[in-house]
Here is the input.
Amino acid sequence: MPALTAVAALLAAIVPVIASPDTAPADWTIWKKLDLGYIAGIPPGFHELAPTDGDSGMAFSFAGGDASLIVLSGPLGPGGVAAEYARQRDSFLDGGGTLSIELSGEAEASFIGVVDGRGVRTRIRAECEGRRHLTFILSYSEAFRAEIAPLASEIAERLMQIFCPSGPASVA
Here is the structure.
């Protein structure tokens, strides 16, 4: 583990350079999940809540719940992005959601829908030669729809794999 600690320390030193103002607007926060090898740009007004999903990600809330953002990373098993997409889409539908847009490919998939009167945008992207996924789930109130639309694409662009971990969270 000393090698992993050394890598994390090195990344902590260089990540601020990688996540320069060129890669994220000045008022965004750069959130680092170094044990899983990714960074995310978080728009202003979003506040960190708590670890999620076995600490593979983080949850953020905006304006007292007008919007929430969950960022996750984890191993991709057999079936890759398609299987992870199906799992998340089925969970969404089982929760009473309805889909309005579905886009699915080999390396990336996404859906937009509504559940309990809230809009939901989910994007899943393959990373680390298809061994891991980076996912964001954005949920927002109807009143926040106009503000969230331009942020959704920017959030996806600011979610970056900076190295591929080889520990227990990845698939060999």
